[in-house]
Amino acid sequence: MAKDKQGGIPRVDLPADARLDTLAVREGLPPSPWGENSEALYLTSSFVHPDAATAARRFANEEEAFVYSRFSNPTVMMMERRLAALEGTEACIATSSGMSAIMLLVMGLLKAGDHVVCSRSVFGSTIKLLQGEFGKFGVQTTFVSQTDLAEWKNALQPNTKLLFAETPTNPLTEVCDVAALAEIAHGHGALLAVDNCFASPALQQPAKMGADFIIHSGTKYLDGQGRVIAGAICGPAKFIDEVFTPVMRSVGMSLSPFNAWVVLKGMETLSVRMKAQTASAARLAEWLEAHPGVERVYYPGLKSHPQHELAMRQQGGQGGAVVSFIVKGGARAAEDGGRSAAFHVIDQTRICSITANLGDTKTTITHPASTSHGRLTEPQRQAAGITQGLIRVAVGLEDIEDIKADLARGLNSL
Ligand SMILES: *Cc1c(COP(=O)(O)O)cnc(C)c1O
After folding, report:
1. Which of these three, 252, 267, 282, is where a domain ends?
2. pLDDT confidence tier of residue 232, bands split at 50, 70 and 90
3. Cα of 368 to ligand 1 centre, how many Å?
4. Domain contains 373
5. Whole domain around residue 80: which residue ranges?
């Protein structure tokens, strides 16, 4: 969006102290002259200017106005303003996917010769992007333990510009200390980005703990119903306007207005969905932990979780809606590491959707080692703790007793 030089684009008239649940429904742009109550979907590639001189001013960033939907569109802006309000950051820039948000982050902040420190437990495609794609262009990444702060510190180099974390992680729900990582980054003159996809701003606001940038896959809980691919970076207005928007203008990893609208409306129910799905996930995690067919459960809300206390502090006392567990492989596990036992449990479900997506109202079940983390080498998978017996369940809004019965079918017949 062009900078606010002349009056600019108006804001919604909201009290300055409006709370999160109010912002989730109300933040955006004022309605058009027609007074629509539900936000308008502006499907237009370009915007018309009253005269040539005005067009020139707008293209030169001297007057704030919508110009071209590769980098400015009212529906997309409504989504950006709403997400920034939820994350408690000054600004936000929407992208075509969560992955392109990370691409925009790195393209905007780094150049060849720069160095990144990243948790080795982050989303599989994030590891591929940093190591593979950006490695090709001379940006080096060191991968470290999610939870060992000393490893993060020891990995710092004079050219380290960015620390990248994700918490809780997919699929093992490992939690890192955001405030401590912010301190390490800032003490070194580097910046901290946190992928907040799993907790969402309904549970956790990393900017309040010192993170500079928040990465989102809007595909997950923000949309909340598994309909569109979307992403975003939230952060200080100076970076969004002066660093990321120019890259967006040249590169065009833009979010379509339609997908922005879907995410915008999804955010209105984010808080109630997260509360309900988290409550169900907590019940499922407790049940799984007591089940004889289960070797281990990964869920931040359980006392057995290694970072339980930190998670409760960072996530408003909530564990989130994703539960992972290792199936007891029995005799078969010796041959395939538990893979066939995990496949058995997955294949016995009749309600859960077998899909790698998450953050949907429909409960999804996935085998990370052969799907989301399938592109990693076996040593990379081992390092990330993604074993063959591991199953991830992203709990939706169905009756949790039905989901338990769905999993019991396979677990009781291993
Ligand atoms: C899904 C996901 C992404 C990537 O988002 P897309 O919208 O699929 O591109 C990034 N980080 C995490 C933690 C995710 O779960």
Report:
1. 267
2. very high
3. 14
4. yes
5. 20-267
Per the structure, the count of domains in the chain is 2
343/374 same-domain check: yes
113 with 236, same domain: the answer is yes
- Rounded Cα–Cα distance for residues 264 and 79 (Å): 5
Domain contains 6: no
Regarding whether 302 and 171 lie in a shared domain, the answer is no
> Can you tell me which residue has the tokens 């915008």?
264
Is the same domain home to 257 and 275?
Answer: no
How many angstroms does the Cα of residue 69 sit away from the middle of ligand 1? 23
Task: Pinpoint the alpha helices (H) of 178-269.
Answer: 178-187, 200-203, 237-239, 245-251, 257-267
- Binding-site residues, ligand 1, Cβ < 6 A: 97-99, 123, 126, 166, 170, 195, 197, 217, 219-220, 229, 231
The answer, as to whether pTM is greater than 0.90, is yes
Q: How far is the CA of 141 from the centre of ligand 1 (A)?
A: 19
pLDDT digits (tens, 9 = 90+) for 322-372: 999 999 976 667 778 899 999 999 999 999 999 999 999 999 999 999 998
Return the exposure string of 270-289: e unless at least 16 CB atoms fall within 10 Å of the residue's CB, then b.
Answer: bbebbebbbbbbbbbbebbb
Rg (CA), the chain: 22
213-217 and 231-235 beta bridge pairing: antiparallel
Rounded distance from Cα 65 to ligand 1 centre (Å): 31
Q: Which amino acid residue places its CA nearest to atom 6 of ligand 1?
A: 98
Q: What is the CATH number of the domain that holds 123?
A: 3.40.640.10
Reported as a single tens digit per residue, the pLDDT across 80-136 is 999 999 999 999 999 999 999 999 999 999 999 999 999 988 988 999 999 999 999
Per-residue pLDDT at 380 exceeds 90: no
Measured from the CA of 197, which atom of ligand 1 is nearest? Answer: 13
